[in-house]
Design goal:
By secondary structure, the chain is α+β, with helices and mostly antiparallel strands. It is built from eleven helices and four strands. Helix 2 packs across helix 3 and helix 3 packs across helix 10. Keywords: Signal.
Length: 229
């Protein structure tokens, strides 16, 4: 989403989601740090934007976009016989704990995209697709920290990988809820304050077993370098 596309994006949100009207134009502009990242697709840019909206106001995100995601997800899985097992219920422990974690999230520093980091994310997502893998480990055995350290040495870093979704809101909300992940590692990376993660790489690629995979890499760079593309 470049500057030309942002008003279109906001208009689409306002037409399709009443919840989006609870966010201001200024908040969307602040969150849309990937607007001019020509190396990202529109959905990849939106991944960055939604992650930033969480950091701008976590509780508001919980009651707006996460609510939209849950309603849409539950509507999709209603066709299946095991709907009661698949749906995200309001008494879901991950849903309940998330509100506790998001209540204190307000005006955190936003993430900025980086072309080199995104190239690393893309390379790993393509590797997962090519070799039908579902791991942080590359097909050659390298851990994500080794892949990233080659270009970002001695930096705090993390990696989130999501499977099954190509839509940006689905990807971000799935990682944020982190259902079935006791450590809540994906969630805590998105709302990180401890490691000062501020730079992201994103890639959404096809996957033979899960249809789609999204790799999101995070690095903490000095503030002077964090906005470099």
């Amino acid at each position: 989403m470049r500057k030309i596309l942002l008003p279109i994006l906001l208009s689409l949100f306002f037409v399709t989601s009443v919840n989006a009207q609870k966010w201001t134009d200024a908040e969307f502009r602040k969150a849309n740090t990937a607007a001019n990242a020509t190396y990202l697709t529109n959905e990849e840019k939106n991944v960055v934007m939604y992650m930033n909206l969480i950091r701008i106001d976590g509780e508001k995100f919980y009651h707006t976009f996460l609510e939209d995601y849950i309603n849409n997800y539950n509507a999709k899985v209603k066709q299946y016989r095991n709907y009661n097992e698949l749906r995200i219920a309001r008494n879901n422990s991950y849903y309940i704990s998330l509100l506790k974690h998001l209540k204190g999230i307000k005006n955190l520093p936003v993430f900025y995209p980086n072309d080199k980091l995104s190239a690393l994310s893309r390379s790993h997502a393509q590797d997962l697709n090519r070799n039908n893998l579902d791991t942080h480990e590359s097909s050659n055995g390298d851990q994500f920290s080794k892949r990233l350290s080659k270009y970002f040495p001695n930096k705090a870093m993390s990696e989130n990988i999501d499977f099954g979704f190509s839509n940006s809101l689905d990807i971000v909300c799935h990682l944020l809820l982190d259902c079935g992940v006791p450590s809540l590692g994906h969630r805590f990376t998105l709302i990180d304050q401890k490691y000062k993660l501020n730079t992201v790489g994103v890639s959404i690629q096809p996957h033979p077993s899960y249809s789609w995979c999204a790799v999101i890499d995070f690095v903490a760079l000095p503030s002077a370098n964090a906005h470099e593309e």
